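Module 6 notes. Inverse folding takes a fixed backbone as the condition and produces residue identities as the prediction. Think of it as a translation problem where the source language is geometry and the target language is the twenty amino acids. Below is one complete input and output pair. Work through it position by position during the lab.
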């Protein structure tokens, strides 16, 4: 009799345990869970006050790339790379010339009649008719070139793989290289957690480099010494949030910065001194958690955004 009571007790206990387990399982379904009180909702930051948006999208056109990679503008010509190809188009998207490339390109820069096309570890220089002028020596086996900028006889190359900036002559001779350190008080160097590492030269000839892990833009001499910097971390419209932002940037004719962010995608303007000025395009104009468009500016101050998610070139004009 005693054994029978024990058996009944064990059966009842087993039923209770199964019931509790089923209850926990059902309550843990996504549609049954309680709201997470610690969840950080960023939806409110995707809305931008209309008075802060200084530009409007005037037009866009398809570029014919499955994997677009980069853009540059010189005078009235737009240089686009992607899909083992370089395309030169006018400001209405009409094809002027197309040049076949040996591999998938990373970025492009045009200066003084020459076109610098960067691949992961190497830069090739072309004439505008597609003739190959010069093939530079490959960089390190771990290199990943993400940006090229030219000023006079100087060519600067950003290498996200090695977290370095290289200073070359126009002929491809390496003049110097630096890692973003200017002294014992600046030990962080370039912090590049992912393959977003941009640089550009403003209309006054000043070299600016993104330090993406610090949400900073840093001004260096051509010899690699830090002269000044500004940074702005924050999810609010004035700041840069997430990892590795701004992902891309360029300059307006007056020296103002045009920045492009990934994740919560947005294009913004900052004054030459670094203060937030306004917005080119808000997050609701892009794909959620999308790629940061590469950006370029024409002589009239119109901003061109190479939208990698939609595979189109979008043109924003001042309102």
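Target side of the pair, the amino acids:
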């Amino acid at each position: 009799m005693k054994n029978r009571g024990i058996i009944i007790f064990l059966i009842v206990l087993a039923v209770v345990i199964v019931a509790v387990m089923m209850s926990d399982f059902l309550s843990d379904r996504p549609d049954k869970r309680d709201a997470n009180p610690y969840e950080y909702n960023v939806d409110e930051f995707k809305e931008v006050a209309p008075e802060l948006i200084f530009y409007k999208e005037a037009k866009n056109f398809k570029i014919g790339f499955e994997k677009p990679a980069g853009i540059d503008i010189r005078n009235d010509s737009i240089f686009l790379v992607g899909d083992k190809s370089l395309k030169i188009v006018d400001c209405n998207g009409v094809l002027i010339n197309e040049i076949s490339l040996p591999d998938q390109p990373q970025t492009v820069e045009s200066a003084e009649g020459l076109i610098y096309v960067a691949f992961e570890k190497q830069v090739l220089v072309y004439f505008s008719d597609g003739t190959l002028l010069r093939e530079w020596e490959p960089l390190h086996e771990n290199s990943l070139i993400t940006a090229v900028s030219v000023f006079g006889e100087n060519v600067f190359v950003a290498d996200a793989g090695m977290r370095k900036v290289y200073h070359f002559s126009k002929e491809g001779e390496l003049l110097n290289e630096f890692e973003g350190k200017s002294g014992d008080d600046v030990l962080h160097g370039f912090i590049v957690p992912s393959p977003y590492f941009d640089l550009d030269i403003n209309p006054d000839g000043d070299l600016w480099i993104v330090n993406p892990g610090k949400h900073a833009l840093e001004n260096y001499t051509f010899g690699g010494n830090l002269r000044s910097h500004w940074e702005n971390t924050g999810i609010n419209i004035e700041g840069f949030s997430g990892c590795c932002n701004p992902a891309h940037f360029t300059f307006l004719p007056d020296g103002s910065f045009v920045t492009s962010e990934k994740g919560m995608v947005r294009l913004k303007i900052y004054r030459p001194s670094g203060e937030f000025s306004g917005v080119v395009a808000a997050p609701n104009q892009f794909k959620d958690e999308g790629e940061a468009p590469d950006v370029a500016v024409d002589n009239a101050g119109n901003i061109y955004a190479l939208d990698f998610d939609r595979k189109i070139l979008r043109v924003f004009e001042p309102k």
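Reference fact for the lab report: Residues 192 and 213 are 6 Å apart (CA to CA).
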